[in-house]
Amino acid sequence: MASSELIVDEIRIHSRKMVRELGFTGRGFAGTDLSPSSVHALLEIEKGDVAARDIGDALHMDKSSVSRMLRKLIDAGWVAEDSGETDNRVKRLSLTSAGKSQVGQINHFARQQVRAAIERLTPEQRHIVSNGLRLYGEALAQTHTPAAISIQTGYRPGIMARITELHALFYARTAGFGQAFESVVAGGLAEFGYRLGNPKNAIWTAIQDGQIIGSIAIDGEDMGSGKAHLRWFIVDDSARGSGVGKQLLDTALAFVDARRFTETHLWTFSGLEAARHLYESRSFSLAEERPGSQWGNMVLEQRFVRPAKPERG
User: Fold this and answer.
1) Closest to 170 measured CA to CA, from 271, 301, 87
2) pLDDT for 310
3) Alpha-carbon gap, residue 17 to 36, rounded angstroms
4) What global pTM score does this model have?
């Protein structure tokens, strides 16, 4: 086994031992009958100026789980919630007197627990442990932070295969499209690739950790008459809700406006409500709809059109 794998396995072994010795796997965590997540929530609330969403972010818990946990702490009389000064919809959390007493007991127990362990170490070993835990904790935290997403233009190796894959996987799941649709996407991209040298045409990809997670293209030739065709707009499931779709669309429309296309057209089909809302928020409107099967299955095809952006006088 490679040395790096040995280190990984050793860290896993030591991490499991710490979790067990600290009481995460049994009852009586931190000298209480609370769950580890509840104990950590109380410690976060102790810091002050905390809302429920802050607890979720800190503990990597979903909204519903945080809500249930906080309700138990509130019902127990340890936590109070009040409306925020600037937004009544955001409840600020604070410890009650009973909650402060409970946190005091938690802190006392935890300090005694740590003190009993580090007293068995030399001063130098204590610093090694402290620094090692800090570095390891910071490294773990970075794994929860998504890598930055960049929008890049032009061809890159693998672009056609990846964009085809994104389309095939998404539309197979949401619309039941199969081989016919994938072939249409792949063939269209291959043909468009030969025309990327034309300044009327452009393609953009959203890149995260070196991987294509989204795409969009403007074909300025195939519709003629100064019209732009917006094509291959897709975002990977992992990036939905991140705003990358808006970035891609705005980038493409900025290209359209800079080159003064008279209109921008796109084809889609009914049922994709999130996408439709995004189009309409960018001045697209439904111009035509009709039953069609150009993508393999019969759907209600829709054509949206965005007029040219008025020039400033």
Assistant:
1) 271
2) 73
3) 16
4) 0.58
